[in-house]
Specification:
It holds the Pfam family Sacchrp_dh_C. This is Saccharopine dehydrogenase-like NADP-dependent oxidoreductase. It comes from Dinghuibacter silviterrae. GO terms for molecular function: saccharopine dehydrogenase activity. Keywords: Oxidoreductase. By secondary structure, this protein is of the alpha/beta class. The protein folds into 2 domains: 190 residues, 3-Layer(aba) Sandwich (Rossmann fold), CATH 3.40.50.720; 227 residues, Dihydrodipicolinate Reductase, domain 2. A 7-stranded parallel beta sheet has the order 5-4-3-6-7-8-19, sandwiched between helices. It has a 6-stranded mixed beta sheet with strand order 12-13-14-9-17-18. Helix 1 runs parallel beside helix 14. It is globular and about 65 Å long.
């Protein structure tokens, strides 16, 4: 018999699934840019069945490639609740790479049926409210299990575990960039993850602690190209504060440390250019333009009257006759279109993930500094470093759960040794290793 939706509606016939226990079945919602590395990893695991769900079945099928032990399903997560619930019932572990606003639907199904849930997204208030029920039902909801957040938490906590003195300063930097061999534009950047997140990054400003003072930086002052850090083998990159660092100080056991900051890395020229983007109000989210038949050049003339372009804005399409044709749009929507058009990874382009932890501490003998760095390059525009480093922690954690080696329950992020010790060990075997 094929899998059924509530006993009547057939999802898809697949003999491989017949009789399989949920303990060997992983369900993935979302087949976007970040899913490739995760799917590649899961399809390498013997005796495992993987269902990949996306709004378009073709998108899911392009990622699974019809490999044995896989199934691609097209599903409207919002509209097809019964089908979604039936898919969750079949699985032992559910992974969501959907937009954060949709995690709640999947989380509700997991609670209803009793399934573990993994995501790469930040824990929000809606997820936090579920913690008592998650714990009461003996489930693990593991969030922030990607790259940043994810590998940053695990590698930082592992590093801190080896320090016996008093921590004075903690700085953690991470960025998704273009590899030097594919860096061929004035932004020194190409998109390897959700372009909407690139457009809206930093809009809420940032908060961190420096030299004992809690600091708040407004969006307009966030992208300072003068803030630099040296990356071994790469030279200097610019950094900007990432969201609100301070809640992580207590999660890391560093609530009294004078300096605590988590940052995002970019090329200094990117920060310089993004300041112009902000100054021209190009990240405004108010729908204001009918873009059908409107070219990029016409949009820039209307939205930025009297402004003079430089090389970076020219590259984004300041004088480009390409029509937008996306209906009623905000400036942020048009900017996203421009980024997707102009800063896309070409087929053989390579992206790059960079991470650096810097910790200053006092122990017998004086003040010392330890630094730990990671540089990972992608293979091409599909098999990116971003997809690999976001997907592998999720895949490894899912396998640990199915194998009974991850016994923690409740709502967590990967700051506990029960999670990060086995995951980091497996990541190293997959070529994700810190120096």
């Amino acid at each position: 018999m094929g899998a059924k939706v509530l006993g009547t509606e057939e999802i898809i016939k697949n003999d491989y699934l017949d009789g399989m226990e949920p303990s060997r079945h992983i369900l993935l919602f979302g087949a976007g840019k970040s899913a490739t590395g995760l799917i590649d990893f899961l399809t390498r695991q013997p005796g495992l069945f993987v269902t990949v769900v996306d709004a378009r079945e073709e998108t899911a099928l392009a990622k699974t490639k019809g490999a044995p032990g896989t199934r691609a399903v097209g599903l409207d997560v919002l509209a097809e609740a019964e089908k979604r619930l039936a898919l969750v019932r079949e699985a032992g572990v559910v992974i969501s790479l959907m937009p954060p606003t949709l995690h709640q639907l999947i989380a509700s199904d997991c609670l209803s049926i009793g399934r573990h849930l993994l995501t790469a997204s930040y824990i929000d208030d809606a997820m936090r409210v579920l913690e008592p029920e998650v714990r009461a039902k003996g489930l693990l909801f593991l969030c922030e299990m990607g790259l940043d957040p994810g590998i940053d938490h695990m590698s930082a906590m592992s590093l801190l575990d080896g320090i016996r003195g008093e921590v004075l300063s903690f700085r953690s930097h991470c960025g998704g960039l273009v590899a030097p061999s594919s860096d061929d534009n004035p932004w020194h950047y190409k998109i390897s993850w959700n372009p909407r997140n690139v457009v809206l990054a930093g809009k809420a400003g940032a908060r961190f602690r420096e030299a004992g003072v809690d600091r708040q930086v407004a969006y307009e002052a966030l992208f300072d190209p003068g803030r630099r850090v040296a990356i071994p083998g790469l030279g200097e990159l610019a950094w900007y504060p990432n969201r609100d660092s301070l809640p992580y100080a207590s999660l890391y056991g560093l609530e009294h440390v004078p300096t605590f900051i988590r940052t995002t890395l970019r090329h200094p020229d990117f920060c310089k250019g993004w300041n112009k983007v902000i100054g021209l109000r190009l990240t405004d989210e108010t729908p204001a333009y009918d873009t059908d038949g409107l070219s990029l050049a016409e949009f820039f003339r209307i939205h930025c009257p009297g402004a003079a372009p430089d090389e970076q804005m020219e590259y984004l399409g300041w004088n480009d006759a390409t029509e937008i044709n996306r209906g009623r749009c905000s400036a942020a929507d048009v900017l996203q279109f421009a980024l997707e058009t102009k800063l896309t990874l070409k087929e053989h382009d390579r992206d790059m993930v960079v991470m650096l932890h810097e910790i200053e501490y006092r122990e017998q003998g004086g003040v010392k500094t330890i630094a730990s760095s990671l540089v990972v390059e992608g293979t091409d525009a599909t098999h990116t470093a971003m997809a690999k480093t976001v997907g592998l922690p999720l895949g490894i954690a899912a396998m640990l759960l199915l194998e009974g080696r991850l016994k923690l329950r409740g709502l967590h992020i990967p700051t506990l040794p029960d999670i990060y010790t086995p995951v980091l060990e497996r990541l190293e075997r997959e070529g994700i290793a810190f120096t």
